[in-house]
Protein 1
Amino acid sequence: MVDYVFERHLSGGILLPANKTTSTSLPIHRGFVPTKLVLAIHQHRGNAAEPVVAIGERVLKGQTVAAASGTPSAAVHAGTSGWVRAIEERPVLGGHGVRPSLTIVIESDGRNERLRDDDALTWPTDIAAQRDAIRAGGIVGLGGAVYPTADKLATPVPVKTLIINGAECEPYISCDDMLMRENAAEIVAGTLILADVLAAPRAIIAIERDKPQAMEAIEAAAQAADDARLKLAEVPTIYPAGGEKQLVELLTGEEVPSGRYPGEFGYVCQNVGTAYAVQRLRAQREPLVARVVTVTGGGVKKPQNVEVPIGTPIAELIALCGGYNEGVARLIAGGSMMGYALPDDETPITKATNCIIAALADEVRTDMHEWPCIRCGDCAMVCPSRLLPQDLLVAATTSDFAGLHTLGLQDCIECGCCDVICPSQILLTERFRIAKRSVAARTPIPVTSPGQD
Amino acid sequence: MRFDQPTAPHARPIVSVPVIMRRVLFALVPAMLCHTWYFGPGLLVNVALTASAALLTEAVVLRLRGRPTRYALRDCSALVTAALLSFALPPFVPFWIPLIGGAIAITLAKQLYGGLGKNIFNPAMVGYVFLILSFPVEMTQWLPPRMGDLDYQPLSVGEHVSYVFTGRLPAGLDVDAVTRATPLDLVKEGLRADRPFAEIRGGSLFGDFGGRGWEWVANFIALGGLYLLYTGTIRWHIPTTFLLGILTPATVLYLIDPSAYATPGFHLFSGATMLGAFFIATEPVSAAGTDRGRLIYGAGIGLLVYALRTWGAYPDGVAFSVLLMNGTVPLINRYTRPRIYGQR
């Protein structure tokens, strides 16, 4: 019998149309081999990896093409066999949008040849060495934050609880749901490896209530694993329950202080995809060369989840899913709440890409009139950080830096809940992002009051 | 292929200002019909006149301020102000009363402060208070309900409308013959004259809880309020503490001396209690902005309403109470900010 952990309090949040079922009717498409890979050497937080291959060299699937450099950092590997055709700057989506960044371009030879067993990564029995293996395996947080997992496993205080995040609260995204349905045993095994490395006395796998099939699969796998450390939690279907700090609040009742990380207080959160990648590294001796990506939206012909080699150009992935439908207006990397709108489909899938939405114009917010704020306070009701966005808006439009600090601008997690609930349809989150940049640069905040037209 | 690149979130907003305003108007329709059933066409005439004045003034002042009118006139906020003001007006007033009221509410309370979202005071209540201070005689021309068994012959629709626009009544009738004191008036004067409450409410204008007819209008207003709560247009904090703010002193004092104080039920279903709780005090712009602040704000209005009704000069006190509490909103907001996640 697996224990369940009961949910505690969650501040704010909003119930959104999930838009997930369109991509969960088909099983995960596996074994896709693209014609080329564009591998950014910097697709994680921390230091960029250092290229260790030369132009013209033949590489095999699983081979390290860029090694981790300092901490935090993570290695980058080839996802299929082929030749290194270029090491050059190409546009890649990173933490600051699409920017030219150094990439290793591999032309696939179509043979998808694996690294020979003698050359493949080994999984050490020594627990301290397992962290280095995870680092060499290029594993990073696959929930979207891409923080190098090995570095996140080095906590300054003893770990109280490992939280495996399978909430997947953001609309459209279903890659974690599908992975839990199909690879529950591997996820549970990976969870136990992470718990070993962390010496965590408790590991909670948290899944939102709208994923009963995933929950059933994970529960069965956890029962089979029969480990007293394993607990399950069914969390409410509300966005952003899967935010790291929100999930800690929801499962433990504790709040992570402003500007600090859960790891500093004995809580380590890892995504289910990350746990899966760790188990794959141990069992298959395969580094992080692929991830599950949800391809969905009204603008793509055959929405589904695909296990995609990292570095696959998005255009090839869309082609695999039947191509675009008439009227596709926006291409979003990520979900509809926090995702980034891509200029084109030339950029590659990175370790951070959990979802590609090809959206029709009526699925997304397009140019809309903003009314003046009527101070209804619904934004404060949904804010998971318990901020007062209506007051922050006034402080931002008047460049009131002291006010912004008191009102907690720095604690805004940019989840976008306030934008969606706002009856005046004010672009609050974008104004707060601009305000944060201006505060950092100590320049006046270039945002206008809504309702001026 | 190129795509557009706006920033996140990409999800569409789930509601808009005009939708919210239309919900408020929609929520008032049953009460409007009920009011018309009991008191004749007066309310509908008032709504038409205040709405025309409000929209026209809004357009003129926006032009004078050099502001665009395209969205401002279509957001239905002026119509909500007009409808709420109309409920506060007696149903039997000359046409210039609603016209002035609508114009004052929009100019003085709304546009002079900067338009939608900027008003410090509730526009409908500013319009009402302006009228009751300026035209006390016309503003007390209330009608009795058309209940058939009262010793009273109601005017026809034609006669009513003719009075509104020309000031003329059918031969042999004057305004005093047509209008009546409201139940709140009767209770106030009766208690002042040391008549026991039970005797006062034995009069023909009184129903089960409040005034005959009036209490049914109050029921339908509460029904509209429940609809607003159900649709998330308003939240529970202000109506709850508003009603508790009236009920608590009313119950305590009534239990102490049932002859000298009106019943809690009378307070609940008389005057503008329900309208105030669900439609006036919940006007978001001039109300407190935090959850805790709204509890305080609602309770403050409720207590003031009871105090003004019981010891003040006017029979009802919703308008003055709301305006007084509007003035305290910056202070309430300042001291009721929620604790931010992860901060002490």
Note: The domain at 3-25+122-284 of chain A is CATH 3.40.50.11540 (Rossmann fold).
Protein 2
Amino acid sequence: MKALVVSRSLPRYAAAKVAGALAPSFSARLGPLGLSEIDEPELPGADWKRVYPALSGICGSDLATVEGRSSRYFEPIVSFPFVPGHEVVGRLDDGQRVVIEPVLGCAARALIPPCRACAEGRSDNCERVAFGHLQPGLQTGYCADTGGGWSTALVAHESQIHVVPDEMSDEAAVMVEPAACATHGALAADPGGGTVLVVGGGTLGLCTVAALRRFTTPATLIVSAKHPDQRRLARDLGADIVVAPNEARRAVRRATGSLEIGDSLSGGADLVIDCVGSQSSIADDLLLTRAGGTVVLVGMPGHVLVDLTPLWHRQINLRGSYAYGEEGPGTGNRRTFDLAFELVAHAGLDRLVSATYPLDRYRDAIDHAANAGPRGAVKVVFDVRGEKHR
Amino acid sequence: MRLPRLRTTFPLGAPTWPDGVERPPLAGRTGLDYDTAWARRYGARVARAVFVDDVLRPLINAVGSPDVHGLDRLADLDETAIFAANHHSHLDTGVILTSLPARWRHKTVVAAASDTFFATRAMSAFSALTIGAIPIERHRVNRRSSDLVAALLGEGWSLIIFPEGGRSPDGWAREFRGGAAYLAVKCVRPVVPVYIEGTRGVLKKGQTLPAGIANPFRRGGPVKVNFGKPMRPVEGEDARRFAVRIQDAIAELGDEWSTDWWSARRRAAAGRTPGLGGPTASPWRRAWRLEEGRRAPAGAKSWP
Amino acid sequence: MKERTSRSGGREGPESGGTRPGFVLEVDRSTPPVLFHSGESFHLERLPVGSRVVYPSEPLNPLADPDGAIRHALLNPLGDSKPLPALLHSGMRLTIAFDDISLPLPPMCKPDNRQRVIEAVLDLAADAGVDDVVLIAALALHRRMTEAELRHMLGDRIYDAFAPSGALLQHDAEDPDGMLLIGQTAEGETVEINKRAATSDLIVYVNINLVAMDGGHKSVATGLASYKSLRHHHNVQTMQHSRSFMDQHRSELHSSNWRMGRLLAAEGIKIFQIETTLNTDTFPKAFSFLQKREWEWSARDRLSYLATSKSLERVPPRLARQIFQGIDSPQKLTSVQAGEVEAVHVATTDEVYRQHMVAVDGQADILTMGLPYICPYNVNSIMNPILVACLGLGYFFNLYRGKPLVREGGVVIMSHPTPWEFNPVHHPSYIDFFEQVLAETTDPAEIEAKFEQDFATDPWYIHLYRTSYAYHGVHPFYMWYWCAHALQHLAGVIVVGGNPKAVRRLGFKPASTLRDALEMAEDVVGGDPSITHLHNPPILMADVT
């Protein structure tokens, strides 16, 4: 079958890293990603099913991998060679349309008894993603045994499979996984009736805005986004104040009626959800959060050098938000994916799918995804519907 | 500090005049009779402008760093004027000249004592060329001087004059003489009162070199100059009374320095402006008073 | 005497044979291109044949003896006021209030009118033995001034005499202990003014009446008031019903101020008003071509135009701004009136009109104007986009009596680079207004309803207004309200040479050349439009019939 494969090749990683700093399109050319003809993955067990992807999204963490930017931290929890792609809508053998919840937790790994987190339904916190009868891999799309979305076929455990309602389009369904990530981040801390700042206007940022509007009740929802199209979408999705990144400090100051103290504010936002995860964005987050407030990192940060003095002095909670599981009692302990289905349908998130590419044009696709903001795009996906199955 | 004087004897130096031989009268070409017209011709003016702007000004700035106030009061004055100032030091002339706005600076003559500045031919030429001095008697203005001044004022020249008739011996001003006022009345020109303070600390009467040059570690106090509002004699005022008014005006300008303008105005309105002449008391008390502002305040520490 | 004639002969105008009034020129084929100001630059533009250009009057002759005239005015007041010496007595509380740095424009050469007048007033006060004197800069909600700025306008003597002892104050409308509620007018307008002024035995107000909207009861009722008081006349409703606010008889802004002023008088607050007017000798010699008619430019004028405009294109904007903000204007005192507020202001307004008024026959479809580098709120600062809008649509558009120079549904074309740039010290609330308010809507009424209260009470703006050098949080709103009449009247506004993003944020249309702008305007007002160009500054006011 046709698949985009990431293989372990130190020189190619290095080349990608250098090229990625210059131009992402080069990194797609030089990097560890390549189009190959490989065998379809074997079914690892009885409760596994074969899924034929229809649409498969390109996520920020995928780009980091392709460009050789991802953290060494991931090394023991991925297995090479793997087929990327974890935002997948596809069909089962019986034609049923499904979305995959990619985390490969204890259930998929047939570990009995499951770890504590999995036992509580919080598979996002699974402790055993490197163990069991599967090769290491935190998610489908990073595991050598399961295949991934950027191909014509992969395998998924029953626990990973969510059936897509008939009225939902493929474009909407492919947004369910990112929407679930965003929902998990939005519900990571309760803003109450306070001020929330969402940093970043990419897929995660916009989905987070939608999720905050849908599932929480912030008094003021501020979004800082770099590109005009992102700002327009943020406003459409329910942000109260939408500003450019360099305007964020003033917007938060005014919304919270704070005073300025040097670069920092006397008060600040109750909750900052950072969907960028860069060094400068995290440093800014800490300056814009009120004492005792919370910063949630939804965007994957990697190596950053940040002055944590404000975190210490203002007693800020800094926490990460990864994947999805089961949300708190505020939502009736529902699965994040169930909330995400609801969110995608309700907020019309299918509009965020800006461009589709066949697998053959993966270089263009990666380039487009890496420059989504400036080119007025949000989510770029591979369209595998036209590929022939062997 | 005094410069070591080079003593030369005849025939290297000039011969001495024998007592028994009667000296012929001076040829009448120094002192009051010195003709300064050449120093107001174009070439001399250019030379003087260069001297004032490029030699005198840096020098004055170096030794006195003058703080000039009140020039805004001259904004409406668009004619020649008589600048009348109190007098402490030879520096005064230079300080006023260099602090005058450009429209007067290079067209101003200085009334200088004929007995000092015009004592010899060389001295006369030097005075006339460098500061545009014209000879004048210390204690009265004779006909010839006043005619010259009147003519110059009409030709677009302004005049700097020190109505005290000489530098102050002890730091307090002496009685103003009527010269400036007389000239103002006669020529129908405004008098600009000018108050100067601090030049005594740089170069007082009897000193040869300014403080900063004689001893680089001892700087003279900052020199302060305050220009007053142009004054004209009022209806029926004679030169004597006008002179008193000029003296009062300069005293007020001095009072402005020691306190502030508003306090000075209020004291003036109440007739309590401290006079320029200082207290009527024994010399030590007069000197003591003078130094009051200068003594280091209690608790002030000097370096290190 | 020789000296005198040769010096004053150097400057054209006043003494050599009177001044020529302003007039309207109809552009024909031999009319040279017309000067357009454009921020820290200017260019020559050829207007279509048949366009009209309104030229200002030449500067009036200044008073020969300004200090004498001031003294005369103080001793011979207008209206039912006693001469100033009769109002001064030992033991009284005297407050002297004066206009802030927004007047005059550009700042005048020293000595400033305020210095001359206040020194004359203080001379009389000293004679009368008045001890308790306080000077207050009537800032209203403007920024505080720096020491250098105060020294420039008051002179060193006044500054050194009053500032060290704390007797030179800048009005603080947000000082909870510094304001006094006077009462309410018949229309229910709250009147609250500076407490020190209100509790004085006499307020002497020293003004500079640069344009016709200044002065009168507006001096105290606005200059020493607070937000509570100002909001009754600084609002959209009032501004839309002030046609124009330069014409006090048809200005709702002035009616409100007059009601407040009369309430002050009725409450026993004694005001001795001193108003001064200036001629329009706006630019120093190096820029004198800016106030000459183009066909009278000498070889020297043409050379200095070319030299300045070409070099300005090459210097960085920051430097150009510095050069222009360093200009001190040689404008001179033309009249001084003192006494009872209303009587004084009638005489002052006549004087202002004498200098500014130019008769214009009929309205045009398109009004063009070149906006200079300065407006009342960016002295020593940056002319940000909001101020550009305010200068064009607030001030220049409203410089009319009768009806606007442009017909209803017409278009205004103004030239200004409109940089997306703000002075963060002077205009902090402007930045937020531009980024957050104008991004949402440009409708003055909606802005007023939705955002004004929030900005006016923001503690950070109040803090900066009181302790730094910032305009009050609500000030950008007033700038926008100032435009309200024009925004209601016009069908479109085009900015030539402006930063497109900033211009669009203002709700206007950007154009790169005047020709493009005229074509864009034709789409709105129809083909073969009539065009009027406002050749301002030097300031002129159109009497449109």
Note: The radius of gyration of chain B is 20 Å.
